[in-house]
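Example (one chain per record):
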Amino acid sequence: MTTLLAIGTGKGLFLATSTDGRRSWQIGGPHFPMTGVYAVAVDKRRAVPRLLAGTSSSHFGPSLATSDDLGSTWQEPEHAPVAFPADAAASLGRVWQITPGGPAEPDVVWAGTEPSALFRSVDGGRTFELVRGLWDHPHRPQWGAGFGGQAVHSVLPHPRDPARLVVAMSTGGVYRSDDAGASWAPGNTGIHARYLPDEWPEFGQCVHKIARDAGDPERLYAQNHHGVYRSDDGGRTWASIAAGLPSDFGFPMVAHPTRPGMIWSFPLAADSERFPVDHRCRVYRSADAGGTWEPLSAGLPDGPFYPAVLRDAMCADDADPAGVYFGTRSGEVYASRDEGDSWSLVAAHLPDVLCVRAAEV
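Predicted structure:
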């Protein structure tokens, strides 16, 4: 079995592969050189896995490319497949998230974008249509922009019910749909927005990332702009699980693909000090749905460490035991083949790592 690790950077996409149980890696690329790759997906719902990459060129603009041969060749249409219709009076900044749909919809792919919008494909990511229910939501004029822009960055299809979907955006918060995107309700009760005049608003929270539990699809996890939370009711209400972490600020939130209750995060000191806590490179893992946390650092740098890890620059693969990966803003990529117990360096001196995705192919 081959493990594929897709690494999106500020200057292209790198593809790393391992055929020896993730002990060593061969790195190819860059694909789309000098192009920002903010989103990557590995869609395994067909006989041959499809790679999807959201690219952002300063000259040609944003687009989305696909590959059906694990990156040997890419198909990129002449006209960007993700684009706002003329009557939306908006233009695409970039694709921030690409998420394959659930098992009941093998050709559905979702794309979250900047400005904050959701697009749906029914042909495996070749073409997309704007989800009007979210775009026309009465809250949209009040959604703001986080430090990195205004974007839908998390898309969580329900694994059992195709009509149910949860998204998160910065800023705006969590929104839920129970009718395949026709209508949406905010789901932010319990998420503290200490930076707003109303610290407990219906919407407007700067959620950085959300993830869904492997065993209970109603259990979600969130990393907020200050705040780490769990929801046990599909995102309607949230409770803090930050106790035991050295900081409640950070960007990624990763859930184990098959093991219930296991999650990983990479805390930073604060929004005004976006360095790892104590300048130490440490991943934090919980095996009990955020009840307790443990630092993981075996094999990681033990000296002063300053780079941050962005919201999509951390992921887990679907192997057993699961591999965990993260990339830094200084171009290092680290991997664990034992769910975080130990780590090794996959690559160094890459451009700024924006996203990572991994799977057995």
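Caption: The chain has one domain: 3-360.
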